[in-house]
Design brief:
The chain is of the alpha/beta class and 373 residues long. The chain folds into 2 domains: 172 residues, Rossmann fold; 192 residues, Dehydroquinate synthase-like - alpha domain (Dehydroquinate synthase-like, alpha domain). The chain is 46% helix and 18% strand. The chain contains 13 helices and 11 strands. The strands form 3 sheets. A 7-stranded mixed sheet has the order 1-2-9-6-5-3-4. Helix 5 runs parallel beside helix 6, helix 6 crosses helix 8 and helix 12 crosses helix 13. It is globular and about 60 Å long. Bound molecules: glycine (GLY). Glycine binds next to loops.
């Protein structure tokens, strides 16, 4: 018997699409993708780790619908989101004679989704693509909303495009193959949704997060679905981040600086940086008198209970000083007229965007956090 499928609609007019969420969805991918095709042929881009786990199942489900596929496998890891691999993907798709009306499938985590989505955005000035996110982070965040791109030595995601997928298939069953560290890193983005706009969801996570981490299928389905609902609603309001969409970057100003400071290495995964960044954003909010001191304490307590990185001291190795970290924050895409913009909070579930942060308070907070390293 098929598992129930959650369907979240991303209401973007002629660029609207559905995110389907269910356990075992990969086995149904062929049937779900078939109605989108003009000819029975797709190109799949993945990484070698994900391909080892999930490519045979995807190919089987496509074949069952008479859909032929070609496959390109890239090295796993953040370093793949670069100019060189963008060229590799584009050249391969052109070699495969992928046309505008064809579908390219991004099978993988956030790195593959962002890179392949960007290749799809620029190939022949835009071909269609389907996201099949295989990490928790990609299921709840990066596969939805059309942000695509690559990193350069200047920073993360500084080269990219908005290019919406035609369909997103989030199979919560594939999360079982994730290493625990990756799962918890993705959980950083799940917590972010509760913190930025849904206090009841955060409360639910406090009660159910440990079950989710232990593999409870119903908890995973609910957490992914609620996260995607929140993202879809914000993206539909503000597709290209002129306003509210910046709320989705709660914790990310700190995170991007920390990722740059750690060289985008295994020292800090993106979702781990988001979790630490959320804790710092709440700490800064409390220091600025915007929220009570209980709020950052509660955020930290939940992250700790989940066994996640919570403070700068949890990042192995040395970190640069506060001034250097603030310098790295200045590369953030939210910088407006040279002014840093932060997502701060009045309470759990009540985030807002502001440029009004006294530099002294920020420096003092980072100095104290770094002193504990
Ligand atoms: N990850 C933030 C956004 O999609 O806007």
């Amino acid at each position: 018997m098929s598992e129930p499928v959650e369907r979240v609609h991303v209401a973007l007019g002629e660029r609207a699409y559905d995110v389907l969420i269910a356990e075992g969805l990969l086995d149904r991918a062929g049937a779900l993708i078939a109605p989108l095709l003009h000819r029975p042929r797709v190109a799949i881009v993945s990484d070698s780790t994900v391909a080892g786990h999930h490519l045979p199942g995807l190919v089987r489900s496509l074949e069952a619908e008479g859909i032929a596929s070609a496959h390109l496998s890239l090295p796993p890891g953040e370093a793949t989101k670069c100019w060189g691999q963008l060229e590799t993907v584009c050249s391969w798709l052109l070699d495969q004679r992928i046309e505008r009306r064809d579908i390219v499938i991004a099978l993988g985590g956030g790195v593959i989704g962002d890179l392949v989505g960007f290749a799809a955005a620029v190939l022949r000035r835009g071909v269609r693509f389907v996201q099949i996110p295989t990490s928790l982070l990609a299921q709840v965040d990066s596969s939805v909303g059309g942000k695509t791109g690559i990193n350069t030595h200047h920073g993360k995601n500084l080269i990219g495009a908005f290019h919406q997928p035609s369909l997103v298939l989030a199979d919560t069953g594939v999360l079982a193959s994730l290493p625990r560290r990756d799962l918890l890193a993705g959980y950083g983005e799940v917590v972010k949704y509760g913190l930025l706009g849904d206090a009841a969801f955060f409360e639910w996570l406090e009660a159910n997060g440990p079950k989710l981490a232990a593999g409870d299928p119903a908890a995973r389905l609910r957490a992914v679905t609620r996260s995607v609902e929140m993202k879809a609603e914000i993206v539909a309001r503000d597709e290209t981040e002129q306003g509210d969409r910046a709320l989705l970057n709660l914790g990310h100003t700190f995170c991007h600086a920390l990722e740059a400071a750690t060289g985008y290495s295994g020292r800090l995964l993106h979702g781990e940086g988001v979790a630490i960044g959320c804790a710092l954003a709440f700490e800064l909010s409390a220091r600025l008198g915007l929220c009570s001191q209980e709020a950052p304490s509660r955020v930290r307590a939940h992250l700790r209970e989940m066994g996640m990185k919570t403070d700068l001291a949890d990042i192995p190795g040395e970190l640069p000083g506060a001034e250097a970290l603030i310098g790295l924050m200045a590369q953030d895409k939210k910088v407006l007229d040279g002014k840093l913009r932060f997502i701060l909070a009045r309470d759990i579930g009540a985030a807002f965007v502001t440029s009004d942060v006294a530099p002294g308070v920020l420096r003092e907070m980072l100095d104290e956090a770094l002193a504990a390293v």
